[in-house]
Write a structure and sequence with these properties.
Layout (H helix, E strand, L loop, with lengths): L1 H7 L15 H9 L5 E6 L5 E10 L4 E5 L18 E5 L3 E8 L23 H20 L7 H11 L4 E4 L2 E4 L3 E3 L8 E2 L5 H26 L12
Helix pairs in contact: 4-5
Length: 235
């Protein structure tokens, strides 16, 4: 069926959505025949689609491996000559798939064996290490932005302060600009800083007072209770 459609659709073959009754073995076999093809796979995860070259399909584990690296801009280059990103997907997690181009639509690369399997591209361990370290840094940064053992209101105040000034948690105290400490219950009078940081202290107090007022007004609107305001001049 794929070979017949290829001539009429310029090398683009679409498969219908997988029926629920289709056995995993049949799907696995179908994908195994498409090794080396460019495919688009929609998983059972909402709004999750992957596109790439089908690298392998295992009938024993019911797993497929998809190389999502875009095709090289130079036709003479091969995927094996550049860093690649692989995704392993279980057959049961595939909702639908589409074969975008068959492996025979273009000359087989030198990296492909007789069975259509491609050699694994060389891994860039330096890039992987940098990626790992960046991920760890992000996790640690997120961790410093979440208070431990603090109330929802305290976290809301902290988040509001962090949008304006550099902020982090130290136990249950907020550290703003690395010089001002705000202790529970996080009022203006709870702000402390070294004497030489008086200017920074005043600025933080103003920001805190403003953010607490906004939070109070928001809470008042949510509860339907009007927030008292001062009387205007002239009436």
């Amino acid at each position: 069926m794929a070979e017949n459609k290829r001539g009429s659709t310029a090398g683009k073959v679409a498969t219908p959505k997988i029926a629920p009754q289709l056995a995993m073995q049949e799907l696995d076999a179908a994908l195994a025949k498409a090794i080396g093809a460019r495919v688009k796979i929609t998983t059972t995860i909402p709004n999750h689609t992957l596109q790439g070259t089908l690298f392998a399909a295992c009938p024993i584990t019911n797993l497929i491996v998809l190389n999502t690296t875009p095709p090289p801009p130079n036709p003479s280059s091969t995927l094996a000559s550049q860093p690649c990103e692989y995704h392993t997907i279980h057959i049961s997690k595939i909702q639908s798939y589409q074969i975008q181009s068959l492996p025979n639509d273009s000359p087989r690369s030198d990296s492909a064996g007789e069975n259509g399997l491609f050699s694994m591209a060389k891994l860039d361990f330096k890039a992987l290490k940098s990626r790992e370290q960046a991920t760890i840094r992000k996790i640690k940064e997120r961790d410093t932005m979440k208070g431990k053992g603090v109330s929802k209101e305290a976290q809301e105040i902290f988040d509001a302060m962090a949008r304006t000034l550099p902020a982090r948690w130290h136990e249950t105290s907020m550290i703003i600009n690395d010089v001002v400490r705000i202790d529970s219950p996080y009022r203006v009078e709870d702000c402390k800083a070294p004497q030489e940081q008086a200017h920074a202290l005043e600025r933080v107090k103003k920001v805190l007072d403003n953010e607490r007022r906004k939070i109070g007004e928001k809470a008042g609107r949510a509860s339907g209770v009007a927030t008292p305001v001062g009387m205007r001049k002239g009436g």
